[in-house]
Amino acid sequence: MTGLLFELSFLLAAPVWLLMIFAPGRRLTDRIAASPLTVLPVLAVYLVLAAPVLPELWAAVSSPDIDTFRDLTALANGAGAIWAQVIAWDLLLGQWMYREGRRLGISPCLMGPLLVLTVLLSPFALLLFLPIRALRSAGKPVSARPGRPLA
């Protein structure tokens, strides 16, 4: 059951990723990417995985040290819960990057690979995206672009 939930956590997020990468700018994609509710199914999986290891999870987060965290991730449900948490946060980060890219007019040809990298290694993707965002923001004031809402 734990293995199935582990896989399900990514499968629940995959449709949102696919829309942002392969259908940028579509009304449906923009609406879905704007909603933080996309992570709720993944968080439901997280709760199911975390509940049986709640004492170990609490120990790992309330008094963090490497050995306690290693003990948590040695448990199937502990590793699965951490994975689901990573999937949820990566999805939220990807949605923010997608929306910022759209707001700033960053080409989908650049954002697509950045979003794929976010799925795989989000810290690296964020480290690449932040300077791109800063350069794009510095190049032209967003409010001066016709037809671009500030929201």
Topology:
Layout: H1 2-22, H2 27-33, H3 40-50, H4 54-62, H5 66-74, H6 76-104, H7 108-139
Key descriptive features of the protein:
mainly alpha, 78% helix
Continuous helix count: 7
Query: What's the number of extended β-strand segments?
Result: 0
What number is the mean pLDDT? 93
Distance between the termini: 42 Å
What value does the Rg take, in angstroms? 18 Å
Biggest sheet overview = none
SSE arrangement, N to C: HHHHHHH
Low-confidence stretches: 142-147
Q: Structural class, from helix and strand content?
A: mainly alpha
Bin the helical content: over 70%
- Beta-strand portion reads under 5%
Give me the oligomer status: single chain
What does this structure look like?
This protein has about 150 residues and is mainly alpha-helical. It has helices spanning about 1-20, 25-35, 40-50, 55-60, 65-75, 75-105, 110-140. Helix 1 (about 1-20) packs parallel to helix 6 (about 75-105) and helix 6 crosses helix 7 (about 110-140). The longest helix is centred in the last third of the chain and has 32 residues, at about 110-140. Mean pLDDT is about 95; it is low at about 140-145.
Give a brief description:
With 151 residues, the chain is mostly helical. Helix content is 78%, strand content 0%.
